[in-house]
Specification:
Length: about 110
Amino acid sequence: MRKPLEDVFRENLRYYRGRAKLSQEKLSGLLDKNVNYINTIEGGKSLPPLSMIEQIADALRIEPYSLLIPHETQEAFDREKAARECSEQIAIQSKQILLQFLGSLA
């Protein structure tokens, strides 16, 4: 079952803030907000408007959508690994097609 989007957002905010080594106070300052602003969001007492989500993402140096997708899912996707796996599958399929073509010439 999927987590509520509000919970995903709050968990990601804590995760990416920690990864950026920013305290709640420091992030609030970067956003020109009251010291308790991030605390009320992370604590589940409020949710920011979309324009503030963009500002938060900019301060954390991430894309805004990253705050709305479980970070575990994002990290599980390894682009290099995916590229290698795709290349291997293409090579296997190409070999099969070539063998079928050569077999049809005989």
